[in-house]
Design a protein that fits this description.
Largest sheet: 10 strands, mixed
Mean pLDDT: 82
Number of strands: 12
Order of helices and strands: EEHHEHEEEEEHEHEEEH
Low-confidence stretches: 1-10, 201-228
Helix content: 25-40%
Number of helices: 6
Shape: globular
Distance between the termini: 25 Å
Strand content: 15-25%
Length: 229
């Protein structure tokens, strides 16, 4: 486990958890043939392992506010709560405008004042970083303590955009090559929200053989359609 990237401020950093058990579980998630139940299981398991890494920055008894970015962030939540069991869960509903790629709020359950409590953001795929940065800016206005973001996979563009905000630690299972012309992580693992909860009517086509698309859907199955970045 090592720091792979920092902003140069010495305050914000990306930590890629390179433990074998993380890499093995992530390889299962990347396989197109991995089914929904198995995908959910290993997503939660990686969430647990990355949350263990987060305890190097925040004590597990620190009563953090855990913020899953809907809908795909819910896939990490069960594992994270196994480590931070006393944490308050407050969802952030963000959809990504498919034309402008700009994130848009549709639900905000975050407290107005975090009163110095640690905050852990959950977003499996950090592609452009737009959704994470939007939620991060909202959190920063509420006087939080340490702020962390837990992701399965991040792209360099998204990392730079998120860590441009001082005092943020991003913990990821992998840093992938980059984005394609449509803003999808390459190689990625497919649409995380769809693979966790099923395809939405406006979703991308099924994952092609041997290729990951790597952007996570942002909404619960019962909510309006959209994606995050």
């Amino acid at each position: 486990m090592e720091a792979e990237y920092s902003t140069g401020t010495g305050v914000s950093e990306l930590v890629v958890d390179s433990r074998d058990q993380v890499a093995t579980k992530l390889a299962i998630l990347r396989r197109p043939e991995t089914g929904q139940e198995e995908f959910r299981h290993y997503c939660a398991e990686i969430g647990r392992l990355l949350a263990q890494t987060a305890t190097e920055y925040v004590d597990s008894e620190a009563d953090p506010v855990i913020v899953p970015i809907l809908r795909a962030g819910l896939g990490l939540l069960p594992g994270v709560r196994r480590v931070f069991g006393s944490g308050q869960v407050c969802a952030a509903g963000i959809r990504r405008n498919e034309q402008t790629l700009v994130p848009e709020w549709y639900s905000d359950e975050l407290p107005g004042d975090f009163a110095g409590r640690p905050v852990i953001l959950l977003d499996p795929m950090c592609a452009t970083g737009g959704s994470l940065r939007t939620v991060l800016d909202r959190v920063r206005r509420g006087h939080p303590g340490p702020v962390m973001a837990i992701c399965l996979i991040a792209a360099p563009d998204g990392v730079r955009r998120v860590l441009d905000r001082p005092g943020t630690v991003m913990i990821a299972a992998a840093l992938d090559e980059g984005l394609d012309d449509n803003g999808y992580i390459v190689p990625g693992l497919g649409d995380a929200g769809d693979r966790l909860f099923g395809r939405e009517r406006s979703s991308q086509p099924p994952l092609p053989e041997g290729r990951g698309l790597g952007r996570s859907s942002s909404l619960p199955t019962q909510a309006p359609t959209g994606r995050d970045g």
